[in-house]
Request: fold
Amino acid sequence: MELAFIPSPSRGVLYLGPVPLRGYAFCIIIGVFVAVWLGNRRWIARGGRAGTVADIAVWAVPFGLVGGRLYHVITDYELYFSEGRDWVDAFKIWEGGLGIWGAIALGALGAWIGCRRRGIPMPAYADAVAPGIAFAQAIGRWGNWFNQELYGKPTDLPWALEITSSADGRVPGTYHPTFLYESLWCIGVALLVIWADRRFRLGHGRAFALYVAAYCAGRAWIEYMRVDDAHHILGLRLNVWTAILVFLLAVTYFVLSAKKRPGREEVVEPGAAGSGGDAGSDETAVGLGKDSEDSEDGKDSVGGKGSEGDREAEGAGGDEPADEAETGAARDQAGSGKKA
Reply:
């Protein structure tokens, strides 16, 4: 008898009038907003402009959703194209089924297009958004809780997940909440990347590589606990092999990048330094204005002394210069009258 467990929601969708509010989609949307918000803060801190992360996310997010769905459909094609199945269900993304591997791969392609259009180095952008992506994954995993899917092996632990649905071959009972394990792991990955980035000033894509490697390390053992149907290679689930391969690639990139391009990018966005220097230019202009005012004051003071000297000279030399000035002024006035 289980003394405690994590209850599953009775349904994964609420209706606001005729509009369905699906828990899975809601988690994905919140995750995207968190990733963009945090990525924007980190991008600005690195010297970029506000709003750039969101502009590039317009490319990355749709590509990522398509890539995640494609990976899921391809690796679990029997769910949609086998006998008795409806292939139209492959487009029902709100019912669950996004592969993180495809989402990151195709999302990176979308981000590359956005970066190229803005003239931004892709590795710098990836470093800025890396912990935000991990937080987005942590939030998105709760969509599996709403759908009562992707749980682990049976258990009677106090934090076991209660499954009540019997649809699609589910067996009601208590299981390891692998969605919760991965959510907590992703939070830890995000905090690790933020700490390491501040401590070691990671650049040229190394913060993103650290995120990928750390996520894969956790995904491998969490994937091993799951009991949902999956393709196996040499006794291991396909996603376990994928996590191992991607982990090795991320570590290799991290090491080689550190040797070839140590440090961090000096400029992450063309024009951002110039726009940031506008304030400095204004301050310089104010300083120049003050200098000009001071110089004018100096001229006035010098002119004041000179005028006293002139007056003394006039007193010593007589009124002839004054008479000549009056005669010149009269001639000018007469000339201007003729022109009018």
Observations:
- The chain has two domains: 13-270, 273-306.
- The CA atoms of residues 78 and 300 lie 91 Å apart.
- Residues 13-270 form one domain.
- The two ends are 112 Å apart (CA to CA).
